[in-house]
Specification:
- There is one protein chain.
- This protein has one domain: Serine Threonine Protein Phosphatase 5, Tetratricopeptide repeat, CATH 1.25.40.
- It is built from seven helices and no strands.
- The N terminus is likely disordered.
Length: 154
């Protein structure tokens, strides 16, 4: 009996769940030089990109299965990793639109626009989403304003 308990405990201990953020993450060593620290930060950011891609794939899967709450939670997880990623804010805006959360759609799309830099396509997509959300809210003037901004971006 004692032998079986030990085997069961060993089997349980051998299962290791690695969080998505830690998959393929480099081991970082603290350096005294600020320039070396910046270089390491860039390496970490490069390593996080596959994590973001994996999370977006998961969000797409959830969204396709009609599980918009799980899709939103997954994108929010990605945003905790990269809070200044304009694409992630846009994707969250799209999910909020699917959830018929019009004000949240507008807020997330505006955040994406603010972070999009020179990405005219992403800005245009966001303005289009804002126009649709204002249309759902019945605000034709703001919907038209957003459509005009969408046209100017594209």
């Amino acid at each position: 009996m004692l032998f079986l308990t030990a085997c069961a405990e060993q089997a349980t201990k051998s299962v290791v769940l690695v969080p998505v953020e830690e998959r393929n993450a480099p081991v970082t060593v603290k350096n005294k030089s600020a320039s070396i620290h910046k270089e390491k930060s860039r390496e970490v950011n490069k390593q996080q990109e596959p994590v973001i891609i994996a999370l977006l794939k998961d969000a797409d899967k959830f969204s396709g299965q009609g599980e918009s709450a799980k899709a939103a939670a997954t994108i929010e997880r990605a945003l905790r990793i990269e809070p200044r990623n304009a694409l992630l804010w846009h994707r969250l805006s799209v999910v909020r639109f699917q959830q018929q959360q019009w004000q949240q759609t507008i807020a997330m799309a505006r955040k994406s626009i603010a972070l999009a830099g020179n990405n005219r396509k992403l800005k245009s997509d966001n303005w289009g989403l804002i126009a649709k959300a204002y249309g759902k809210l019945g605000d034709k003037r703001k919907a038209n304003d957003a459509r005009n901004k969408q046209t100017n971006q594209g």
